[in-house]
Amino acid sequence: MNRFPDNNAEGARIGQMLLARGWTMASAESCTGGTIASMVTAVAGSSAYFRGGVVSYAVEVKQQVLGVELHDGVVSEDTARQMAEGAARVCAADCAVATTGVAGPGPSDGKRQGTVCIAALTPHASEQRTFVFDGDRESVILQAAVAALRMLGGLIGRETEK
Most exposed among 132, 142, 151, 162, judged by the fewest C-beta atoms under 10 Å? Predict the structure, then answer.
């Protein structure tokens, strides 16, 4: 059974892009709780490019495993960037994505529900951005996971154009 019938195309697309370049990827997930890793590994053959993921729900895991230094709080673009860098380092991957935010219900840490900071990096580029998604907890998590994969795909695509 496919857990992501409408969005598994993103996992497959990223896999094709990584395979074409001989790159690998990793994920660092807080608010998405492993959804990105699950979407990528739902694709047969993903072991050729997916190195691993860290579900760093606790602040201590972000700090101790991924090496995050909280300069701007847990839900920030800087934290997401550091999480992605940590995942790439820990998993020895070429590319990484990271999510940190408030899936809900309700606000947390002064941020409204649906606020998610996402970072993506490739060997030559990185990007981080804050999104505000609407919907319930499950919807926010899925939207954030898809946005993270699309962000990584966009970075990979721009590198191809160079």
Answer: 162
